[in-house]
Amino acid sequence: MTLVVQFQTFFAMIAAGSAIALQLDVYHRCLLLRSKWTQAVMDLAFWIVQALLVFYLLFYMNFGELRIYIFIAIILGFVTYWHTVRPFFLRLLERIIQMVQWLIMAIKKTIYVLIITPILGLYKLISKIAIFLLTIVQWSVIQLSKLLFFFIRPVYLLLQGPKIVKQVKAMYSRLIRWFSKKSDDEDS
């Protein structure tokens, strides 16, 4: 391995260490999990992904040769980021998160105003129209039944309707008593 490749690998590993520190800040800021087990699993996954990315970069730079200066370069990049760029990046990250939250809220409000509100208004309009039409139908049925009863009442009285209704009621009560006697006999 030439000296140029070693220097390129060294500076690439410094950049990788800085990138790991930056991604760690983003990961910690955006992690919303509160359970210790899920956080442990997510931490393990984060560090596995970081290790794979570093080894991919190392393999790309010098065919995966692992030397002590590579670890020193990663730690140097991490510490350099932590003491120089981190405060500025955290402020930038907070602004980006606020902008994303504002954008999500604006999209939710837009969807509510353009989709949900018209659907609710249409539902209320249709239900009021349906109630109005049902009221008209109910009123019409009542008026027609009154009119029909006015014309049918003389025929009902002429055909001895009350007497027939009384006979039907008596037959119904006898039928009920007969069935209730059967069930009483079965219970005994």
UniProtKB/TrEMBL annotation:
Pfam families the record matches: Spore_YabQ
Enumerate the UniProt keywords alphabetically: Membrane, Transmembrane, Transmembrane helix
Record-annotated membrane-spanning stretches: 37-59, 66-82, 102-123, 130-152
The name this protein carries in UniProt is Spore cortex biosynthesis protein YabQ
Organism of provenance: Geomicrobium sediminis
In the record, what lineage is assigned to the organism producing the protein?
A: Bacteria, Bacillati, Bacillota, Bacilli, Bacillales
